[in-house]
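Troubleshooting: if your tokenizer reports a length mismatch, compare your output against this known-good record of 288 residues.
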Amino acid sequence: MKKHLLLSLMVFAVLSCKETKKEEKMVSAEETGLEIKLYTFDGGTVMVNNLELFSQDTTYQGQTKEFADPFYVISHPNGNLMWDAGLPQQLVGQPVYTDPSGAFTVSRKDSVVNQLKQIGMTLADIDYLALSHTHFDHSGHANAMKEAIWLVQGSEYDFVTSEEVKNSGEGIYEAIQELKKIQKIKGDHDVFGDGTVIIKAMPGHTPGHQVLFLDMPGNGPTLLTGDLYHLYENREYQRVPIFNDDVPQTLASMEAFEAFAKVKGAKVYVQHQKEDFNTMPKAPKFLN
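Known-good structure output:
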């Protein structure tokens, strides 16, 4: 099996070692004025000590880079969606950790519960959870979201629950194993049915990788990339990490993403880029 989490990230196996959603009050876009709020939270920091892993060639040989690792809450009149889940919460309060290969040094300062308090929310206020994919740096507090409905591509669910992944020792399955309220989706999915929050299937990084499209007053069309791109340069030159599940599929997703972004005139936020993380709305501020 390809090493989806790169080299020896087995430590995260240790770190990791409503069925009915809330009744929705359907409110029309006209009635609400499309009041959609986006909050950005700190899910930790990933220091990439070997950036060469993020290209099929030697472009980044000898380079390092610090990645942001955010998660987001999208507040919509018909419910709340959490997008991604940061690094493992077990890292909170612990010294920075470098994996045995030396490729990554990771840390996380705060929990999901404490950060949600900043916007007056609790775990119970999150109706939906969607992960761009199930790698360890995007599923860190997923198990805490047991009351939310997990919106997951069927192909990603099959990947992460396969016997091969369960027995891999990498902790990928363990990070989501407590989630029981599951809604499998196939392809694009309009979360609230009004075109304002759409999960878009963009496989290749993992079998069921996805990105998030938002159409918000004030900010306009917005795209969160997940790990379709990790770096501005990878977007510009369509560079693919060596650990992606399927390179041709990744390139096809990049092409589809760019075409969609152009049609929508969307602002694109590369989630792991610190510069983009720093410009995103933080609690208690939001786009309006």
